[in-house]
């Protein structure tokens, strides 16, 4: 173990500091498609009984009108976060009629591109901005790709932890600077080691054959309706032939916060010839927010993002530049189709230990070759993570993936133990043991279990997924929320609709002017 990690563990293990780790915050965003009882994409509008997708903080839509997103508050105990997610699912199911929530990350059999409905947020300027942004995504990347769903895991370390470490390490600068540099260091380590999460939690080894729309690919045919790779863990996180050429040259540097925000600001302000050719309007209608590499900073696809809660009308980069990094958003997690919510407490406890390891371990700057290796390792594991003898690149040498995975879990063990010491019990260490079993026996990984279940039931990907969706629907519908909780959700839904209506009635100013000032806002930021 590194000297720095040892010192930090010792400091956090002191009695006066031990309770700090109970104050980490956890939030979960779960995306899922609404489907019909035949397992086809629901073409119905976002159910009004769920409230306004624009203003309901817990239930919104992601890309498509059919792609729901459930958002929990950020809470200190992940068990409470998951309980909140469970309640949102139960409420949604009380309003879905005969529709289901699709169980895996990869989508159901999809209709023609033009029949995939883009999420609509009403007539307010901000609502229209969200809609035009999605039209731009359709134009740039196609609608099919936008129907993939995932789990985003939001994690922050306690604000009081940073001044403590900063003082112990003699960091010169403000508390905020130290905190941001520590989160950027976490992100660098996440880039190095996130292949491990793909092996342990990847759950998308197969997909519906229609998903690729007849384009060329390297996948194999499992049955007439299913494509797969025999050793894949997460085709969702592979390139799948979707190469964003515009984003190809965009590799935000994680050396410090300002180099990261600078690279995104440039991308939002730099024209990209093929988009310029299309323009922002067609037949007098907006088709994309601008003709730059990115329309807005959130368009940048990354496995993890530095985040800061934004004020009304504030852009993510503005918030980061003004007030520093507050938490990280892990974006590479597949939905586990065997779990009703797609994630459980064991996964969450392990993620906490993993992220704590990334935060507290040495994190040298990423040289170009290390950066490339991190990307290559990640792609190797998503496509062939269960292949016997798979080799990854570490420090310029080949290393056996299983060997490295075992080593990493051994290094994470003291972090799990520290979390257990802080919380009482042994839940984190037990969660780590579960992951060690998956490294020893690949058949225990979610990706292997998906293929095994499909083989056992002689099912296509779509048949397996619909069966799981029905099992989960029964799980949520068989035990409705208490009257009190149901009433709270319904009141929140109603007030969100009223809030949207009020926004629309009191809207001042023209949408074109609104877009112009929104674009200008990012150019005005000075680091």
UniProtKB/TrEMBL annotation:
UniProt domain Glutamate--cysteine ligase: residue ranges: 10-380
InterPro entries, sorted: Gln_synth/guanido_kin_cat_dom (IPR014746), Glu_cys_ligase (IPR007370), Glut_cys_ligase (IPR006334)
Keywords: ATP-binding, Glutathione biosynthesis, Ligase, Nucleotide-binding
Upper lineage: Bacteria, Pseudomonadati, Pseudomonadota, Gammaproteobacteria, Pseudomonadales
GO cellular component: cytosol
Protein's pathway: Sulfur metabolism; glutathione biosynthesis; glutathione from L-cysteine and L-glutamate: step 1/2
Gene3D superfamilies from the UniProt entry: 3.30.590.20
Entry EC no(s): 6.3.2.2
Catalytic activity: L-cysteine + L-glutamate + ATP = gamma-L-glutamyl-L-cysteine + ADP + phosphate + H(+)
Organism per entry: Pseudomonas frederiksbergensis
Name of the top EC class for this enzyme: ligase
Record-level Gene Ontology MF annotations: ATP binding; glutamate-cysteine ligase activity; metal ion binding
Biological process (GO), any one: glutathione biosynthetic process
Name of the protein in question: Glutamate--cysteine ligase
Family listed: Belongs to the glutamate--cysteine ligase type 1 family. Type 1 subfamily.
